[in-house]
């Protein structure tokens, strides 16, 4: 066997010497080609030292040193190709190169220490096993990272070095478990090294440029992770074999062998288990890789699809947006109404009674599972949908492949029913996540739009109610004027002045009713304002007092001077009447109400004072001047003071209130001098 080993290593040394000379003659200028030369040189030195060791029978420690150097150069070559390094400066500055050199140096020092100081060869074998594992992982990434047009140049290199590293990996795994090197393997590796040299030579001739743009696919990460997982598993087996040998005594060899075989069988079983492979692939895709979908782009596309649709039906817009996201032409929407399903929109899909019955079964399942139903997947793998029983053929014949639930505020609101994309026979986990995100956004869109429709309807009713309140308030004032006529008709019907006043009052009521009619025709828009006329404020106050004095308590009026003001007479009269009536209603029958109008320093000042029940400061500050706030309960509309404040401020005046609960209130109206003129009696 030693003679065969010498022949094998000798042939390998000659082969790699020829390989080295050919590389030196070709002398390609790329940095990767230079690293190939260095890696070839270290491989030549390694097999030459192995041949010399077999011939001279000296310690294997020297050969292991060259083995570690050889692995380092090939690994550095793989790293440089993976990262696209183009020069020695980039090579020195690269972080991956630095990390690998640091790890390699640490493992090498630990291996040397374990042999020369601790005399533990099994640790050295584990170090070489780890270095070979790292080289295998990087070699696999070199092949998978490159585009298809460059793989034809890399596959001979991948196969050749892969065979070499895998052979060494198995050899060192066995050595670490049984604590000695199997020399049958050791002598055979020379022939293997010689046999793979032509493959390396072929790749070196094809490899003109090792710096194309790289695309790291998910499969690369997945298969590399599986290799790392396998290597770590074998390292654990090696360490466990060492412990068995350390503890087992004379049975240690047999126990190590049995443990290795059982461990390898368990590893193979785990690697070929589809469920485990699928879970690992999903885990890697979710946590170690960028998403297949650019959600920023998809979000903008979804918004554009919703905006460009001119349909007045919200569900139609949502269905078209969902269809565009999946690039399908048909989509239907079914609304969940308790336990019932209502077809809101079906487009060109045929949602017959039979189909609807199947969807009801899916609804019961989805309420519990909250899962997208892929009918194509169900037909092939029904076990993935436990406790779901449907007629998949019926749905597929109706072009229904996907049933996507949509939620709003964590409540199931409906389903999008649509065919699946033709290029995807089944959905994967990422497609499902994407569809859930789209359906969630569309569910919120539908919920928001429905809420806006209801809000608009509520606002329309609110406008109508406010308009009704203002109309009723005007009618109440007109009714008060007309009731004054009926009360005094029997006593003063033969009085010419009373008759004239009646006609004047009826005319005023008619004008105000015409304004109400105009306001109703304009659907609550503000009615045209009266033209301002110059009136005597004292006479207007006296008129309002006469109207209000038909009720108790009687109003005391004091307005000595003749004050002329340019104002809308009817509106100001309404303000006076309303404020005086409020004061009367706040008082008892034996109470009093006083109205005063005088010229002050800053303009006309009108006060309305009573000794009624008063108002709290909180009510004055927060509710008094707001519409529909009143202290009268159902007897008042709560808009009189609001209208008074609006009118006074339109005249650039001010209205203020002082009140004490249980003692009374004082309303003060101030109008600027610019609106006022004074004439002597």
Automatic annotation (TrEMBL):
Lineage: superkingdom: Bacteria
EC number: 2.7.13.3
Transmembrane segments annotated in the record for this chain: 6-26, 35-55, 100-117, 123-140, 152-173, 185-202, 222-244, 256-276
Keywords: ATP-binding, Kinase, Membrane, Nucleotide-binding, Phosphoprotein, Transferase, Transmembrane, Transmembrane helix, Two-component regulatory system
Coiled coil: none
Keyword Phosphoprotein: yes
Protein name per its UniProtKB record: histidine kinase
Keyword flag Transmembrane helix: yes
Record domain Histidine kinase: where: 470-675
Pfam hit, one: HATPase_c
Catalytic activity: ATP + protein L-histidine = ADP + protein N-phospho-L-histidine
GO terms, molecular function: protein histidine kinase activity
InterPro entries: HATPase_C_sf (IPR036890), HATPase_dom (IPR003594), His_kinase_dom (IPR005467), Sig_transdc_His_kin-like_C (IPR004358), XrtA/PrsK (IPR014265)
